[in-house]
Amino acid sequence: MKWEIEKNLREDPYISQHVHNSIKFYEYPPTDKMEGIYIVIDPLDVPIPSEFADNQPLTNDYLYQVEVWSKNGELNELVAKRVSKVMQEIGFAQGSGVDEYDKSLEVFRDARQYRGKFYDQETIK
């Protein structure tokens, strides 16, 4: 699922215009020499099987946190909103998050959690 999230974020025209190959998993940007916009995709839990039939799971629940980092607060907010739209288009619902500014590093960070339930394609074949 994380690969599908990355693919959809990269293919979005607005995001690809502002984020140049800086979409990573687990890997945080170098705040001491940050340039541009960075997106970090973090799985917060393993896929959890749910909705069973004949004692087999039909779906998996996923929980991700997607973070947008930059030194430009306005652009950071716009990209984070676009990420939220893309995640909704994929089928995720936005949960809680944090919008913060680190004054000492002059870095903005918008981190939002997304939960989604998707059919397990292997099980339903």
Key attributes of the depicted protein:
alpha+beta, 3 helices, 125 residues, STM4215-like
Overview of the molecule:
- This protein is α+β, with helices and mostly antiparallel strands.
- The chain has one domain: Phage tail protein-like (STM4215-like, 2-Layer Sandwich).
- It contains three helices and six strands.
- It has helices at residues 2-11, 13-18, 73-90, and strands at residues 23-25, 38-43, 48-53, 56-70, 93-102, 107-119.
- Strands 1, 2, 3, 4, 5 and 6 form a six-stranded mixed beta sheet that branches.
- Strand 3 (48-53) and strand 4 (56-70) form a beta hairpin.
- It starts with a helix and ends in a 6-residue tail after the last strand.
- The relative contact order is 0.21.
- The model has no long low-confidence stretch (mean pLDDT 90).
Write the layout of secondary structure elements.
Blueprint: H1 2-11, H2 13-18, E1 23-25, E2 38-43, E3 48-53, E4 56-70, H3 73-90, E5 93-102, E6 107-119
Parallel strand pairs: 1-2
Antiparallel strand pairs: 2-4, 3-4, 4-6, 5-6
